[in-house]
Each structure stands twice: as C-alpha cells, then as structure tokens.
Amino acid sequence: MSETEPAIRIESLCKTYAAKGVEPKRALDDVSFDVPRGQIFGLLGPNGAGKSTLINILAGLVVKTSGKAAIWGFDIDQHPRNAKLSIGIVPQEILFDPFFTPREALEIQAGLYGVPKDKRISDELLAAMHLTDKAHAYSRTLSGGMKRRLLVAKAMVHSPPILVLDEPTAGVDIELRQQLWAYVRGLNQQGVTVVLTTHYLEEAEELCDRIAIINHGKLIANEPTRQLVARAQDKAVVVTVDRDLTQAPANACFDRIEVKGERVLEIGYRKDKVNAGEVLDALQKEGFGIVDVSTRDPDLEDVFLSLTRENA
Ligand SMILES: Nc1ncnc2c1ncn2[C@@H]1O[C@H](COP(=O)(O)OP(=O)(O)OP(=O)(O)O)[C@@H](O)[C@H]1O
Questions:
Q1: Residue 216: inside a domain
Q2: Which residue is closest in CA terms to ligand 1's atom 7?
Q3: For the chain, what is the domain count?
Q4: Is the pLDDT of residue 37 over 90?
Q5: Which of 51, 58, 215 most suits a substitution to test ligand 1, by most atoms within 8 Å of the C-beta?
Q6: Residue 18 C-alpha to ligand 1 middle, in angstroms?
Q7: Which structural domain, as residue segments, surrounds residue 245?
Q8: In this predicted structure, what is the pLDDT of residue 26?
Q9: Could you tell me if residue 293 is inside a domain?
Q10: Domain of 279: which CATH number?
Q11: Among the atoms of ligand 1, which is closest to the Cα of residue 28?
Q12: Ligand 1 center–CA 195 separation, angstroms
C-alpha cells in the first residue's frame, strides 16, 4: 500500500440486523471515514450507537449489509486474510478458555495466525502486560484486570500494524487504565495505528489525535481532537460575589445561571455570542461586586452533548 493510504477506510457502510419476527434494526447507516496511519483514533458514541457493530465487521465477525471496508489497503471482501492479518482486535467481552495458561493462550493464538515458532513474541507480550509471573497460571485464576491485559496481548501476537480496542477500560481500575494507556501510547510511538472505542470523553480527549462520533448508526463528527473541542460554544464562569444571594440574577446574555453557594454563581454563556467580560459587566450592572472569577473551558462532553442534541 502507498504511504498516504489510510490504515482503515470505511465507505458507505451499512448494517441492518434482521431476524424473523423482530423489527429490523439499522445499526450502521451509510458510515464513511478514514483512520489515518500512525494515529490514535477515537470512535465515540453512546450505548447502542453502532461502535461494536463497526469493529465486528472489521474483525470479520459481523457481515455488513452494504458498503466497503479496507484494512491496511486490503478490502475485507476481496482480501479477507490479509485484512485480518493487518489488525489486532481487543474485544469488549472477556472470553477465554479457562484451562489454558496465559502463555499457552498466546502460543495458540499465534499458531492460529500462522506465526512461526521462532517469530513468536509471547514472552515479550506477557512482560509488556505485566503478566510474566502469571505466565503459567490458569486463565480462570486471573483477575478481571489481568484477563483484560491478556486480551490485549492476544490481539498483538501477529504484530499487526493496527490495534483496535473496543471499550478497553470498561470496568477497569484507574491504575490499570494508566498502564494500559502507557502501553498503547508506546505501541503508537513504535508506529502502530490505534483505534479505540469509548464512552469516556475525557479518555478520548487525552489520548486521541482524531475523534469520530457515531450516534444512532450515523457518523456525526470526524475531526482532529483539538478542532472538535474548539467547536464547543458553551462556556461557563464561576463567580464569587460580594453579598449573599437570595436568588439568581437574570440577564439576557446569560445562557443559564445557577447558585452554587451562598455567594457563588455559575453562569453559562455561548462564546459565539458574548465574552466573559460582557457576562461580568452584566452581573455588575445587576448590582453585584465581583470578588473572584474562574472560567471553565468546554470539553468533549459539551461538544458531544451539543452534537447529539443537534442530531436528535
Ligand atoms: N446481533 C444483533 N441483533 C440485533 N440487533 C443488534 C445485534 N447486535 C447489535 N444490535 C443492535 O444494534 C445497535 C448497535 O449496537 P452496537 O453493539 O454496535 O452498539 P455500540 O455502540 O457498540 O454500543 P455499546 O457501547 O453498548 O456496546 C443497537 O441498537 C443494538 O441493540
């Protein structure tokens, strides 16, 4: 493939789940986007948005209804084997044969991918996932966090250029989350393209170069993270005033106002309409002296809410 070709290309992808006696469910509706090579790409969306469906189509576990997908330049219909070899997928559900040890599980997985014995990296993967001392324990004796790390190791046995993590931190404690992200960042620095799906906007904001958002099966955003965050227009100032508040003052330039404490107000405003200075002036005109001010920048949560609201 050429240097400029994306790691993943999705074109007009549709999926309708149909079963006898139940209403057909359109899980993906004409979704198109590219995952550029070398990036950490976030796929965001609320529960049931269609993220797992998309990942499972790439994994060859769900058959698409129409549209195209190519992984590392390999069309999933025309070159399914090469497409599969180019991607490692960490599934959302933890599924293992409980009787294999982590090391055996990795060796079996490598065998399935046709990795020759002298090219296997089971021990490196166990070390990277802090599982060396569990290499020979039964999988069923591992903690939830250890199982999740083993799943990441399993996805990497064939050293794919793309790693996909489907909700990798659901139910994972903070320490493991940090470890997982350190590993993912490390892989990315070595050139691995990473795609992760998440509900956690903060996580996506912190990690991802680019973010796509799906809602009800439709792509509603696909932009560099910084650009996406900059689109949020809702800002807020938290103001401490010089006297006790009996009720929140009203003014046309406040989008919303909330009494947060005896003398503390949070005022929401739209940065495309007014600036913080005008909001504070308005407050002073209402007769308040200002003792202290802090502003809250919009984050992805705000973007997400406004985009999903617009598309509702
Ligand atoms: N096998 C199936 N049969 C019928 N409907 C399904 C099937 N799998 C998923 N769906 C439906 O398709 C829609 C998209 O589901 P999907 O699991 O892709 O969403 P998601 O974004 O991954 O959500 P979550 O974050 O909860 O996993 C949902 O409405 C879901 O109920």
A1: no
A2: 17
A3: 1
A4: yes
A5: 51
A6: 12
A7: 232-311
A8: 94
A9: yes
A10: 3.30.70.1560
A11: 14
A12: 18
- Ligand 1 environment, Cβ below 6 A: 17, 25, 27, 45, 47-53
Which atom in ligand 1 lies closest to the alpha carbon of residue 62? 1
Give the residue from 201, 157, 230, 212 showing the smallest Cα distance to 32: 212
- pTM here? 0.81
The pLDDT value given to residue 113? 93
Residue-wise DSSP of 33-66: EEE-TT-EEEEE--TTSSHHHHHHHHTTSS--SE
- 17 CA from centroid of ligand 1 (Å): 9
Residue of the CA atom closest to atom 31 of ligand 1: 48
Mean pLDDT of the chain: 89
Measured in angstroms, how far is the CA atom of residue 52 from the centroid of ligand 1? 7
Classify residue 178: in a domain, yes or no.
no
The residue type found at 239 is: V
What ipTM was predicted for this assembly? 0.96
Residue 266 lies in a domain: yes
Atom of ligand 1 nearest to the CA of 54: 18
Task: Return the C-alpha torsion angle 218, 222, 225, 227, nearest 10.
Answer: -120
Residue 63 contacts by C-beta under 8 Å, 6 or more apart in sequence?
Answer: 57
Can you give the pLDDT at residue 2?
62
Give the CA angle between residues 264, 270, 274 to the nearest 5°: 90
Choose between 102 and 255: higher pLDDT: 102
Question: Ligand 1 centre from 247 Cα, in Å?
Answer: 45
Is residue 83's pLDDT more than 90? yes
Enumerate residues 6+ apart whose C-beta is below 8 A from 73.
1, 2, 5
Closest CA relative to residue 217, chosen from 24, 17, 63, 27 = 27
